[in-house]
Amino acid sequence: MSCNSANGDPNSDSTSCIRETMPRSTFLLSNFPREVRLEEGASWHRRAVWCRWQPRATEPLVFRAPIQAPDVTKCGVATVPAGIIDFQLPSPDSLLRIRPAAQLVIKEYRAKYKKAIQLMKALPDDDPRSFRQQASVRCAYCNGVDDQVAFPDLEIQVHASWLFFPFHRLYAYFHERILAELINEPTSASPYWSWDSPPGMQMPAIYVDSTSTLYDAKRNAKHLPPTVIDLDYDFTQSTSPNSEIVANNLSIVYRQVGSGATTAKLFFGSPYRAGDQPDPGEGTIDSVPATWSRHGKLYTAGRDPTFFGHHANVDRMWMLWKAIGGQNRTEFTDPDSLNAGFVRDCLDHLKLRYKYQDIPIPYSKSGVAKAAELPKTTISSSGGFPKPLNSVIRVEVPRPKKSRSKKEKEDEEEVLLIKEIELDGDDFVKFDAYINYEDYSVSKPSNSEFAGSFVNVPHKHKQRMKTKTSLRVSFPRARTYDITIGGIEIELVSN
Asked: What are the residue boundaries of the Tyrosinase copper-binding domain, all occurrences included (predicted)?
C-alpha cells in the first residue's frame, strides 16, 4: 500500500492511496516486522521476520463481529520470507524503554534520533521500513483504501471509533522499533510531543532545524516557534494572547482526559464491528485532533516526523486517563473490541516495555471558568430534526431519568448525544458544543459550559461522498458548513 502523488511529486499534498504490486507497507492489522535481522549485502525485504495477530483460541468468533485485518492476498505480491509468525509480546524481563519529552531531550539523544530518521529516509521506497512506506500505513488505514473482510463495499477506517487508540499505539510502537534497529540500539525510545503541558505548547526545537532530517518544509510556517499551538485551531489563526490560548488548551485537555471522558465510550469512541459503516463516533481525544502543520490532512500527516511525536503523546493520554482511576476508566471488555485483529495485545503499554518520562501535569486538578450568571432565553424543543448547521442550534433536551440514586450515577454517565451528523468527509469541519449556555458570542473552551468539539479532518472514502457519524458531548458555536444534524438527545452510558 502506498500513497502516490497525483502530480509526480512524492512530497506533494495532492495525493491518493492506490494499490501497487510491491512489498506491502507494514501492516498494523496484520503484518509487522517483529525483529529485523540484517545481513551485510542482503535486501531487508528478503530477510525480515514478519508477524501477524491471530484470534485467540479461547475467544471463538462465532456469533461475533470483530473487525479483522484486510485480505492481503488481494494486494499484489509481497516479497517476504516463507512463513509468517504470530506476534509475541516482548519478554517481561526486557529493559523498560523511557520515551522522553521532545522539548527536554539532550544533545546526545537528538543526534541519535536524527540519525535514525536519516537512515529510515535513506531506505528504498519499496522497503517496508522506509519513511515513505511507514507514512503510507497512515494513508491506508485512515483514507478508505482497504475493504473489510467479507464486506467488499465497506472500507476500514480506524478513526472515529474504538480502534483509534489501539491502532495508533501500535503504529507508533513499531515505528519506534524500526528506528531503534536501524541505529542498533534496541533500548532506544522515540520522543513524545507534550502539547498538553505549557512548556510543550510550541513545536519542540528538535523538529525545527531546517538542516535536520526531522524538518518538513511543507509545515505551515505560522505554526512554527514562537507560535503557541492552539488545540482549538479551526484553520483560522487565533488573535488571542498566548496566555489565553494556553488556558484554553489546558481546559480542552482537562475535558479530553478528565471531566469529559468518564467512560470508555466517551474516551475511546463508539463500537465499530464488522459490517458497520465507518466513523460510528469519535472519542474525546480524536474529536480535537492536531489540525496544525501537515496533520490537517489524514493522507499526508505521516510524512512529517512531528506526527509520531504527536501520536506518542496521544498514547500517553490513554495512560493518564486510566491512571485517574474509577470503575468506568477501563478499556472495553466487549469481545468485538478485544478480538479486532490487534487490540488485545496492546491494552497495557508496560507489556510492550515502554513508559513515558514524567513531567508536571498542570490540568490534573484544575477545572474551568465558572458558569456566567446570565438571564434565561427562549430555546426550541428537541424536535424538528434533521437540521442544517448553518447557524447556532439551541435546543432543550429532555433527560431520560431525572432522579437517580448515587449508585445509578456511578454506574451510568449522563451524556448528550448529537447523532447522525452528515457531512462531506473531504471537508474540514469543526463545531463546538455547550450546555446551559446563554451568550454564545463570547464562547471559548475555558467556559464551564463548554462540553467539547466535533472535528472532521479531511479524508477520502472509497464509496461515499457523505459521512454519517455522532458526537457524545453538547452544542455548537456559529460557523457555516454543509452539515446536517440528525438529532440531539441525552443517553445513559456505562461500560
From this structure: 304-315
Strand pairing of 97-99 and 354-356?
parallel
Supply the CATH number for residue 197's domain.
Answer: 1.10.1280.10
Note the pLDDT tens digit of each residue in 75-110.
555 554 455 667 789 999 999 999 999 999 999 999
Q: What grid cell was written down for 102?
A: 521532545
268 in Cβ contact with 331 (< 8 Å): yes
Handedness of CA 1, 30, 162, 443 (dihedral sign): negative
Grid cell for residue 258: 478528565
- The grid coordinates of residue 482 equal 454543509
Q: Are 413 and 493 in contact (CB under 8 A)?
A: yes
Is 361 a residue whose pLDDT tops 70? yes
Task: Give the span between the Cα atoms of 283 and 160, in whole angstroms.
Answer: 7
Burial of 277 (0-12, 13-18, 19+ CB in 10 A): middle
Is 174 contained in some domain?
yes
Report the distance separating Cα 182 and Cα 37, nearest Å. 10
Residue with cell 519478554: 91
- pTM of structure: 0.73
**DSSP string covering 89-120:** PPPTTSPPEEEPBGGG--HHHHHHHHHHHHHH
Contact in structure between 242 and 355 (CB atoms under 8 Å): no
Total residue count of the chain as it appears in this document? 495
Q: Which residues of 74-85 are buried (b: 16+ CB within 10 A; e: fewer)?
A: ebeebebeeeee
Give a yes or no: residue 250 inside a domain. Answer: yes
115 against 422, higher pLDDT: 115
Q: How far, in Å, are 224, 231, 239, 240, 306 from residue 236 at the CA level?
A: 15, 12, 9, 12, 21
Residue 396 placed within a domain: yes
Q: Where are the alpha helices (DSSP H) in 4-80?
A: 44-47
Determine the 3-state secondary structure of 227 from DSSP. coil
Query: How far is 367 from 203, CA to CA, in rounded Å?
Result: 25
CA atoms within 13 A on the CB side of 140: 27
- Shared domain for 391 and 438, answered yes or no, is yes
Q: Return the SS3 of 280.
A: coil
Could you tell me where the beta strands, DSSP code E, fall in 321-391? Answer: 354-356, 387-388
pLDDT by residue (tens digit) across 25-84? 333 333 333 332 222 222 333 233 334 444 444 444 444 688 887 766 665 555 544 556
Helix (H) or strand (E) holding 434: strand 429-434
Give the DSSP H/E element, type plus range, for residue 409: helix 406-411
**What burial letters (b/e) apply to 369-389, b meaning 16+ CB within 10 Å?**
eeeeeeeeeeeeeeeebebeb
Alpha-carbon distances, residue 314 vs 156, 181, 204, 339 (angstroms)? 21, 24, 16, 22
Instruction: Give the model confidence (pLDDT) of 145-155 as tens digits.
Output: 778 888 888 88
Is residue 379 one of the residues assigned to a domain? Answer: no
